[in-house]
Amino acid sequence: MVYNFFYSPATGKAYSSDQMLGLFGINTTTIDITTLNRRGFYPVNETTPSFDNYLYTASPVYTVSGQYADQTWVYTPRPLDQAKANGEWEEKTKANDAESLIVAESGLSANVLAAVSGQEVPDRPTRFQAVLEGMAAVSDQLDSNLTAIDAASSVDEINNIVNKPTGVLFTGRGSGVGPEDLNVSYYTEFNSVSMTEADTELYVPSTATVIPYGSGGAGKFDSMGNAFNLGGPYTIQIRETATSMVIAEFEVPLNPTGEDVAF
Are 24 and 14 in contact (CB under 8 A)? Predict the structure, then answer.
């Protein structure tokens, strides 16, 4: 394996191969690792920062492990005004890309869509309505996100909007009193640098049912009975508890034993 950097606990810094040769006279391509370690250097197992560089700055941290040094990262929020500007740019870019994709998939030109959007709905050919509604949904979500970013009082709040958590929820229906009863559900994976599992809740839009984190025991969600209307719909949302921001939305599968659902 080729290593690009070499850590020195004495200086607290990592050096490139060129720096090792120029500063210390060490040719990293020929020296054996035992000798390298004796001279106080450790090849770095590099990693990539997992957070948004537009919102945070990253500083590497090195931990010697055997003959090597493991690299991790410490992140620091950027100034709030800068993070807001960057977050707004990220959201606008995502919305522009999403609307461009809708237009491309429709096979219609922007000029045609602009023309039909100016028509009154009763006079508008129905074949264009779904495309316009899709674009409007993107624009509405963008407006909501920009409003939330403008009101944010911390960079973590902005990150929660721009980079919603991802993960896996183990869930299903039918293990309790019937197919309208949500199984006891829990995360098997949850990825976020600014939100924890405990900051979330489950919400059933059709019945306005809130299922708090911990309601099924530590780290679990339990609806304590039917959460859905008879026959559905079986749509559920993962939301941020403090703001009711929707993180993900999906249909809960009919599976009394439960299954992993990625979001």
Answer: no
Reported residue count of the chain is 263
The three-point CA angle 104-106-108 to 5° equals: 80
Q: What is the 3-state secondary structure (H, E, C) of 6-38?
A: EEECCCCEEEEHHHHHHHHCCCCCCCCHHHHHH
> What pTM was estimated for this model as a whole?
0.82
8 Å CB contact between 149 and 87: yes
- Containing 174, the helix (H) or strand (E) segment is none
pLDDT per residue over 185-232, tens digit each?
999 999 999 999 999 999 999 999 999 999 999 999 999 999 999 999
| pLDDT tens-place string over residues 126-157 | 888 889 999 999 999 999 999 999 999 999 99
3-state secondary structure of 247: strand
The tens digit of pLDDT for each residue in 154-190 reads 999 999 999 999 999 999 999 988 999 999 999 999 9
For helices 80-106 and 155-162, give the axis angle rounded to 10 degrees.
Answer: 10
**69 with 42: CB under 8 angstroms?**
yes
Q: State the Cα–Cα distance between residues 78 and 82, nearest whole angstrom.
A: 7
